[in-house]
Amino acid sequence: MERTLSILKPDITRRNLTGAVNEKIEKSGLRIIAQRRLRLSLEEAQKFYAVHKERSFFNDLCAFMTTGPIVAQVLEGENAVANYRNVMGATNPANADEGTIRREFAESIEANSVHGSDSQENAAIEIAFFFSELDIVG
Ligand code: GDP
């Protein structure tokens, strides 16, 4: 069993698609074992995405993540990190496979509906950013 950090981004909450994305997550076999709706400050978004601070889109990405509420989640399942990346689809929705969250819901390469950790090491760091152990009920 493995855990990963998922974020439903502001383009999802704005269009009232939280349940639609959660249905895709649960149908894939992943379990939502913690979930929290919140609004990030710019400072918090910059801290969360600090690994991307040298990238050209860093400022735009952090600003976008503060445009509305997000839903942070812990997902659990076998190979949860890699499995959720498959369920999400490619970063650019134009390249995302049929049936993936991003293919179905993403608006653009930036407003691409979901975040998922890219390694087990980052998953542990990202889960701790949003949740305490007491919040996570497997
Ligand atoms: P991910 O792991 O698939 O989310 O992709 P990355 O780690 O490469 O990028 C993090 C996030 O930055 C993506 O999910 C997008 O929201 C955003 N992003 C990535 N590439 C671009 C880009 O070229 N332009 C803009 N504006 N945003 C981008």
What do these coordinates show?
The protein is α+β, with helices and mostly antiparallel strands. Helix content is 40%, strand content 19%. It is built from seven helices and four strands; from the N terminus they run βααβααβααβα. It has a four-stranded antiparallel β-sheet with strand order 2-3-1-4. Guanosine-5'-diphosphate binds at residues 52, 57, 60-61, 91, 109-110, 112, 115, 118.
Beta-strand fraction estimate = 15-25%
Order of helices and strands: EHHEHHEHHEH
Strand order of the largest sheet: 2-3-1-4
Task: Give a quick account of the main beta sheet: strands, pairing sense, barrel closure.
Answer: 4 strands, antiparallel
Average of per-residue pLDDT values: 98
* Global outline: globular
Low-confidence stretches: none
Number of strands: 4
Q: List all distinct small molecules, including ions and cofactors, that are bound in this structure.
A: guanosine-5'-diphosphate
Assign a percent range to the helix content: 25-40%
Number of helices: 7
Ends distance: 10 Å
| Rg, Cα atoms, Å | 14 Å
In terms of structural class, how would the helical and strand content be classed? Answer: alpha+beta
